[in-house]
Design a protein that fits this description.
The chain has helices at about 20-25, 30-45, 45-60, 100-120, 140-160, 165-170, 180-210, 215-220, 240-255, 260-280, 285-300; strands spanning about 10, 225, 315, 320-325. By secondary structure, it is mostly helical.
């Protein structure tokens, strides 16, 4: 007598009103309407759908590459980040990178503050469950992963500075002075909210939100596990398996149309940064690595000089007056 093989773990989703296999063999317009209705209803009613739908909706509001296209219908003269500073309208007096700053801060509001409001008011969860806590008891791991992630990425980032399309795109503010370190530093500080936004919405809200779903959420969704897997610990197994891919897919899609080095870099950075953040239970090491790498990218593209330019002084023949030439070393030949 042979033993019967153990039943294979599987997920079943009993759904009242969902079309049967027989109905799907000969679908009608009403079949399609029921599928749409039940899918939308579940997305609104249950935690996985709430996280995914809110993420995509807020990303759409921010626009392609954070361009805030809707602002063109509200603010006359809005052209978005990366537009020509000499031709666009100045919207914030005294801030030359005003279009970029508006995009960065708007993204921070839409994709960080709004999800935080949902986490606290709707989901009733701690922000640390979404990667916003410090890597407690994981500082050595956080430092190691920061160095590893940054070290592994720095060469492709620097290599990207040689790509013509990358040089046409970055820095997003096109008038950075390579001889003005103070201006460069101020711009990069203003740039930081962009990286908090990008890393939180993908590696925090989407990744931690889906991978951290508890079994009671699955039961609420009428998604139950049958077989031996039903005895596993109460951490969600279904979404934990695919959360990394879901955030990677949306992160890579957001980069479609970007220069090739950046697009392929996003495809590789997405899973690496996601796994790093999830293992360390914090997005902050990834935010820091991403920000520093882009500072290096911008600096390398514009040829940033860490020392102020030296001035050469010539004495005019037959004249005792000093004539300041202001010739910058390395630029004049």
């Amino acid at each position: 007598m042979t033993d019967n093989p153990a039943p294979r773990p599987d997920y079943v989703l009993p759904e009242a009103g969902w079309p049967t296999e027989a109905e799907l063999e000969e679908p009608t317009v009403f079949t399609i309407a029921r599928i749409v209705k039940l899918s939308v209803w579940r997305a609104i009613k249950e935690r996985p759908g709430q996280i995914i739908l809110s993420s995509y909706f807020l990303l759409m509001l921010w626009g392609r590459y954070g361009n805030l296209d809707l602002l063109k219908h509200i603010i006359p003269g809005w052209e978005g980040p990366g537009s020509d500073p000499d031709r666009r309208k100045r919207l914030i007096p005294g801030v030359p990178w005003d279009h970029e700053l508006i995009s960065y801060l708007s993204g921070f509001f839409l994709l960080v503050l709004v999800p935080i409001g949902l986490i606290k008011a709707v989901f009733k969860q701690s922000l640390s469950e979404y990667g916003l806590g410090l890597p407690k008891r994981r500082w050595e791991f956080a430092g190691l992963t920061l160095l590893t992630l940054g070290g592994a990425s720095i060469l492709p980032f620097i290599q990207g500075t040689r790509d013509p399309d990358m040089r046409k795109t970055y820095p997003l503010y096109r008038k950075l002075d390579p001889n003005n370190l103070r201006q460069f530093a101020l711009y990069q500080i203003c740039y930081l909210p962009f990286f908090i936004t990008i890393e939180f919405i993908y590696r925090g809200y989407l990744l931690f939100g889906l991978a951290g779903l508890r079994s009671e959420v699955e039961r609420h969704a009428q998604m139950r596990t049958v077989g031996p897997a039903a005895e596993e610990p109460p951490r969600s197994r279904f979404f934990a398996r695919y959360a990394l891919l879901i955030q990677m897919l949306s992160y890579t899609a957001w980069h479609l149309g970007k220069p090739s080095p950046e697009l392929w870099g996003a495809f590789l950075w997405g899973p690496a940064a996601g796994a790093t953040a999830y293992a360390g239970r914090s997005i902050w090491p990834v935010v820091l690595a991403h920000w520093v790498l882009n500072i290096l990218l911008d600096g390398a593209i514009i040829g940033l000089r860490l020392r102020p330019p030296r001035l050469s002084v010539d004495v005019a023949p037959g004249d005792n007056r000093l004539v300041e030439v202001g010739r910058r070393r390395g630029l004049a030949r």
